[in-house]
Amino acid sequence: MNVRIGFIGGGNMAEAFISGFVNGELILPSKIHVSDVNKERLEYLKNTYGINVHETNVSVVLNSDIVFLSVKPQVMKAVLEEIKEALTPAQVVVSMAAGYPIKKIEETLGDDKKIVRIMPNILVKIRKGVIALTHNYRLLDEELSTVKEILSDCGEVVEVEEKLFDAVTAISGSGPAFIFLTIEALADGGVKAGLPREAALKLVTATIVGSAEMVRNGEHPEVLKDKVTSPAGTTIAGLSALEERGTRYSFIKAVEEAFKRSKEISELIEKL
Ligand SMILES: NC(=O)C1=CN([C@@H]2O[C@H](COP(=O)(O)OP(=O)(O)OC[C@H]3O[C@@H](n4cnc5c(N)ncnc54)[C@H](O)[C@@H]3O)[C@@H](O)[C@H]2O)C=CC1
Ligand SMILES: O=C(O)[C@@H]1CCC=N1
């Protein structure tokens, strides 16, 4: 695809996307541009992925058709101020900053700009991400299709109303961290029961991937759970220990707290 992609901020999420694109089918490394205040980071990204690196954010804007904003929310305002003169209404800006609303971006860049807001997750790195998307309706249909096609190379794109972004952030944005913690904890249990760490991790990971796949195929998690749970068996012994410790509620609370924090960040940004 003959589209130049820029990343302003070359941290964890930018790298996840870059890795997804470089291993994907649409974007050549020579079409990817990235800037970061950290020169070592740029050196690393250039050496690892063979992409173009730039010492200024403006230089990335001048070399891109689609500009991803992949800096932390608190840096966004300064970055937007820095690039606004270089941006043209023909370019598309894609922001992934948690809690940063489109209207706040428009406040700095002007409301003639084509703006897409996404909430991706780290799984874009292996092209299995979830990417929630909304936009400011300034993009032409074919431009929106191109953005969606490019993002789809890194995972599943779901169009969501902007008012639901805090909830999406709590589930699919932060969600991988909740699952990584679960994997680690279950593997610890396996080690406690005598399994070597590597074997425990392998067993847990395969079990989680397979379980998710069965639910994805349309089976209800509760029905599946009951099929595993024999009367007076091992599973009910484990499940009752989880229920006794409030694990189910802990997960509900984790999502609720992440949601609340996302709203808090949005409200703080609103006031800036
Ligand atoms: N990490 C994750 O799983 C997710 C992160 N996000 C969002 O993605 C954005 C980036 O997050 P991460 O990659 O985790 O953060 P990060 O801290 O790993 O990356 C940010 C990068 O921006 C660079 N930077 C700082 N100031 C800059 C400036 N003025 N100009 C250019 N570069 C600058 C930093 O050196 C750093 O490399 C955030 O807004 C976050 O809310 C969204 C979804 C998931
Ligand atoms: O923790 C955070 O704020 C970001 C947003 C979603 C995942 N990481």
Automatic annotation (TrEMBL):
Record keywords, A-Z: Amino-acid biosynthesis, Cytoplasm, NADP, Oxidoreductase, Proline biosynthesis
Gene: proC
Residue span(s) of domain Pyrroline-5-carboxylate reductase catalytic N-terminal: 4-99
Top-rank taxon, per record: Bacteria
Lineage, uppermost ranks: Bacteria, Pseudomonadati, Aquificota, Aquificia, Desulfurobacteriales
Pathway per the UniProt entry: Amino-acid biosynthesis; L-proline biosynthesis; L-proline from L-glutamate 5-semialdehyde: step 1/1
One of the Pfam families matching this protein, by short name: P5CR_dimer
Location(s) in or outside the cell: Cytoplasm
Name this polypeptide is given: Pyrroline-5-carboxylate reductase
Catalysed reactions, as listed in the record: L-proline + NADP(+) = (S)-1-pyrroline-5-carboxylate + NADPH + 2 H(+); L-proline + NAD(+) = (S)-1-pyrroline-5-carboxylate + NADH + 2 H(+)
Organism: Desulfurobacterium pacificum
Leading EC class: oxidoreductase
EC number(s) given by UniProt: 1.5.1.2
Main localization, broad class: cytoplasm
Family membership: Belongs to the pyrroline-5-carboxylate reductase family.
Function: Catalyzes the reduction of 1-pyrroline-5-carboxylate (PCA) to L-proline.
Record domain Pyrroline-5-carboxylate reductase dimerisation: where: 162-264
Annotated InterPro entries: 6-PGluconate_DH-like_C_sf, NAD(P)-bd_dom_sf, P5C_Rdtase_cat_N, P5CR-like_CS, P5CR_dimer, Pyrroline-COOH_reductase
SUPFAM superfamilies, per database record: 6-phosphogluconate dehydrogenase C-terminal domain-like (SSF48179), NAD(P)-binding Rossmann-fold domains (SSF51735)
